[in-house]
Amino acid sequence: MELAPLSSRSLPVALAEIGVRDPDLAAVVERYGPPPLWARRPGFSTLIRIILEQQVSLRSARAAYARLQTVAGRVTPARVASISEPELRAAGLTRQKAAYCRGLASAVVAGGLDLGRLDGLPDDGV
User: Fold this and answer.
1) Which of 13, 40, 80, 103 has a C-alpha 20 to 30 A away from that of 88?
2) What share of the chain is helix, strand, coil (3-state, %, to 5)?
3) Distance CA 105, CA 81 (A)
4) Cα–Cα distance, 7 to 14 (Å, whole number)
């Protein structure tokens, strides 16, 4: 089954369906409203931001990204791959997030991950 991307038109339909399946989630949506549809520029720096956002507040993730920028200059695959894990840890990244960021950067630099192709692939291909 091919899933369509969420849009301002499809989000209410999806939330209604989820609400039928999960009354607790329906109550959350009723209380707080629908989640925002964030538009993000595709690419490496967005994936790094998403890694940094996991299990922390967005404010904390922005601060971590700013520290990463201080260490890396521009947040590019080559620059992040060249930073050692201890340097990333000194910039405040957790051990796991430092490893994820370096792993992503190294995969892009080595050519094993072509981020430009992902948008055109089906989910299984990604």
Assistant:
1) 40
2) 60, 0, 40
3) 5
4) 10
Mean pLDDT across 103-123: 91
CA–CA gap between residue 73 and residue 48 (Å, rounded): 14
Instruction: Give the SS3 label for residue 33.
Output: coil
Q: Phi, psi at residue 35, to the nearest 5°? A: -70, 155
pLDDT recorded at residue 2: 64
Per-residue CA distances from 35 to 6, 15, 29, 57, 90 (Å): 11, 9, 8, 15, 34
What is the predicted pLDDT for the residue at 1? 56
Distance CA 2, CA 87 (A): 42
Q: What is the rounded distance in angstroms from the CA atom of residue 108 to the CA atom of residue 96?
A: 18
- Round to whole Å and give the CA distance between 53 and 80: 17
Locus of tokens 């369509």: 4
